[in-house]
Amino acid sequence: MDLVNIKKVAELIRKAKYAIAFTGAGISVESGIPAFRGEDGLWNAHHPIYLEIDFFLKKPLQSWIKIKELFYDKLGDTLPNTAHEVLAKMEERSFIESVITQNIDNLHQKAGSKNVYELHGNYKKLICTDCSSEYDISFTDLNYLPPTCYVCKGILKPDIVFFNESIPKYAINKSYEEISKTDLMLIIGTHAEILPAAELPVLAKKNGAKIIEVNIKKSHLTNSVTDVFLEGTASEILEKIGEFLYL
Ligand code: ZN
C-alpha cells in the first residue's frame, strides 16, 4: 500500500476548504453488492430490457419480477463497509461536505452520510407512475407485484434511473453546484465513463480542484485529471486515510 501518498492525501483533505467525495460501484463491492450492473452502475450495464423505461411502462409485472429478483431480494440486507463508514465520519468531522454517488444501494445513508446526491436514484424509494406519490419501500409488500399506489392505484416504479430515463434534476443540479465549490474531489470506485458522471471530475479539475482517485486499477481518469492515484480497494485505502485523519 502506498502509505506515503495516502498520508499526503490525508494532508490535502485536512487543508481543503470544500472537499467532496464521488463514488461508484467499486465502493459497494465489499458490501457484497453484486456486479450485475456493470462497472459503474446502471448506465454501464448491458441494457437488460426490463430496465428500459418503455418496457417497464408497457409490462410492469414482467419488469418488476426481474427487478425484485435483482435488486430487492439482494440489497435489503447489505451493510455499509469501512469505506462508507469513513466517509460518513469525514462528513461528521467536516473533512468532506458531501457525497455524490452513482450507486442506488442506500449504503452511504446507512453508514450515516447526510449530504448524499444520488445520480441514479435510490432503490428504497418508489414513485407512482401516475400521480408521482412517493413511498418508502418498507410501506409496500413486494409479494404482490406490481406494487400499486395507495392514492390512485397507479403502478409504482423504483425511484432509480432506468435506461432512456433522464438523471434526476435535483441530484444533477446539486452535483454541479458541489463541483463548482469544491477544491478537492475524492473519487472512489468509479471510472466515471458515462455522462454526466464522466463530466464531473473534468469540471472539478477545470475549476482548480485537486483530484484524488481511489480504484483497484488505473482508469481513463488516472492519466487525464487525477493528481494522486491510490491503488487498492475502497475500504483498505479509506481505512488508512481515516487513520491519518484521526477519525
Ligand atoms: Zn398514484
Low-pLDDT segments: none
Question: Kindly, what is the distance between the CA atoms of the first and last residues, rounded to a whole number of angstroms?
Answer: 20 Å
Number of beta strands: 9
The CATH C-level name of the largest domain is Alpha Beta
What CATH architecture label of the largest domain applies? 3-Layer(aba) Sandwich
Helix content: 25-40%
The rough form would be described as elongated
Could you tell me the radius of gyration in angstroms?
Answer: 18 Å
Tell me what portion of residues adopts beta-strand conformation: 15-25%
Mean pLDDT over the residues: 92
Instruction: Provide a count of the helices.
Output: 8
Main β-sheet, spatial strand arrangement: 3-2-1-7-8-9
CATH topology of the largest domain: Rossmann fold
The structural class is alpha/beta
- The fourth-level CATH homologous superfamily of the largest domain is TPP-binding domain
Largest sheet: 6 strands, parallel
